[in-house]
Design brief:
2 domains, four-stranded antiparallel beta sheet, alpha+beta, three-stranded antiparallel beta sheet, 18% strand
Length: 185
């Protein structure tokens, strides 16, 4: 069940008060009180303030959680349908769009050569600032923040882990190189 933002209740009360005050002032010949006039004047200010706060809230929380992968989402690097690779899927939020990759290796290729893949895939991305990266932990298969993950490169594949200990165990088990952070990758 989706959480309802409490600001919607404020919006409903504000609109109700404005409609009531407007009704009293314009459509009735009853004695009008000062607070009814105030709501017609102050109400729109409060309403626009609400929309401003609501917009700021939505912008700040827009890309904090991974979105849902659809069956039509394709990797911009290799063209694979990402929904077939749920355990290794990655997601980047860039320029108001979610880009999905079937594995972390393709995500790193995209980030390293972003200009090529944007023009080649006709992605229509102008702002190349990456807002968030979500990646599936190799051990737990849960979404984690890709900028805080630990990565282990084994041959041509990259394996992400949420904890350094899990990455260290994987390195020891597979006799591989070193553990890298996102910036080092």
């Amino acid at each position: 069940m989706k959480k309802v933002n409490p600001l919607w209740f404020v919006l409903a009360i504000q609109i109700g008060l404005m409609i009531y005050a407007f009704y009293r002032i314009t459509l009735t010949k009853l004695h009008i009180r000062w607070f009814e006039v105030a709501w017609v004047i102050v109400g729109p200010v409060i309403l626009f303030t609400f929309f401003g706060l609501f917009t700021i809230y939505n912008i700040k929380t827009a890309y904090k959680e991974p979105s849902h992968i659809r069956s039509s989402d394709r990797c911009p690097v290799c063209g694979t349908f990402v929904s077939k690779h749920q355990d290794t899927a990655t997601e980047i939020y860039i320029d108001g769009k979610y880009l999905y990759f079937d594995n972390p290796t393709d995500m790193v290729k995209f980030i390293k050569d972003m200009d090529f893949y944007i023009s080649y895939g006709h992605l229509n991305i102008k702002d190349k600032t990456i807002k968030s990266i979500h990646i599936k932990d190799f051990k737990t298969k849960r979404w984690i923040d890709g900028t805080k993950a630990y990565y282990v490169k084994l041959k041509d594949e990259i394996y992400p882990f949420s904890s350094y200990e899990d990455a260290k165990d994987f390195v020891l088990l597979n006799n591989t190189e070193e553990i890298k952070t996102f910036k080092e990758l």
